[in-house]
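User: Quick one: structure for sequence A, then sequence B.

Assistant: Sequence A:
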Amino acid sequence: MAEQETAAPAELDAEDAKIVTLARSARARTGAAEGAAVRDTDGRTYAACTVALPSLQLTALQAAVAAAVASGAEGLEAAAVVTDAAEISAESAAALRDLSASAPLLRADARGEVAGVLR
């Protein structure tokens, strides 16, 4: 069953605002289609952008989750994706759900404005 996006909160807490900023920076740094960031259960953050190589394709969230796992993260508290898309891909959401069934997934635009949350 596909996850349902809910409205963005009126105000983000500081930790969620931080991962939106990191995701936005990752996207801007490379000019990628998307930027993403995740926060693990120890409070560490990981940011990445879309990977589009001839031999390797990852969504930004898949790349951020991979970085977290490669660094020893065992669970995730939250994630953010900065994208122009109207929704987050199922592949991206699945990567997050591999480590957390309930972490909120924030979808933000290029300005960092959160448009919705998948839970």
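Sequence B:
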Amino acid sequence: MSIEFADRNNSNSVKYDQIRAKYGEDVMPAWIADMDVKVCSKMLEAFAGRINHAVFGYTFRSEEYYAAIVDWYTKRHSFTVQREWIIDGPGVMPMMALLINVLTEPEDKIVIQPPVYPPFFKVTKKNKRQILENRLKKENGKYVMDLEGLEKILSKEKPKLLILCNPHNPVGRVWTLDELKELSFLCSKYGTIILSDEIHADIVYEPFKFTTMLKVNLDNVIVLNSAGKSFNVPGLTNGYGFIPNERIRKLYNEALEASELTTPNIFGMLALQSAYTECVGWLESLLKTLRENRDFVYQFIKSNMPLIDVPLPEATFLMWLDCSKLGLENPQRFFLERARVYLNNGKDFGDANGVRLNFACSFENLQKISQAMKKAYDELKV
């Protein structure tokens, strides 16, 4: 299946329209984590069938829907999940917010691993919990977990919850089985539940292999996921997860019902079922296209902007640019003002020296973005 890119102007796009309304029509957006690709044609056919039916009343998630999730993890991730483990919800972050309220109390402490997805900070703070930072560290140019530092935090603070980004956004790490085993050992030792966000699990580049946290531990692990990132449907709110622990699963489901969040979005539900049963070929084509984009922009930055430290993403369609050697007060503002490229601000991820670039756009746009950034970089007196 071929991958087609769309012109997203004038579509109420957060990535394009919202930013250009604020900063100008000449801005080239390369930020928020959705893609400029058209969705799989099989998914559009499924939507068309539902639209032609012309009734959009209350609906429910069918057993075929749940079977699609079970089969996906079995075939794609080599792990057999049990149907009864599955939990529903409107999306990964709303589900995470519910779980934070179910598993912790106000002023309790939660561990996150910066630089990391900004909503992890927000959902913790907005729910009046305290953040404990277990920052990633670099070893031989690669980001790794600081497990020694984590044990110190766990032993001293006894946090109830650790939020894991697996694969990691923004640094693009695919955590290995050994890394996850070490993490699980420490969290089990100190009674900390691991909440694993696995929304980028399907955007992984060979030779790397995604490992679900469920392969390591079932008792104190919760996994959240969605078809949103991999199949470019984040606007069709729908999520799912796995809670093998029956007690925790019961608490979550009670909270979901109490919040009146049990009715699914018709098209979000349909998107997932179609994606997992009909769109494997499309996903493989997407991965090939994204890999080409990744390789181009990585080599371009390494060759033309050598003072920017950029790890090669093992997963995701996002790239973390460490600009600490450039001596800039605000790298995001610099590239916006000098290159007219809008990137995510590293400060939101817990590292003001970085920016995050989204390379899930047409190759033509990616070239323009790269060249504009190089021009701005070349004008720097470092």
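The CA atoms of residues 31 and 343 lie 5 Å apart. The first strand starts at residue 28 and ends at 29.

User: Thanks, that's what I needed.
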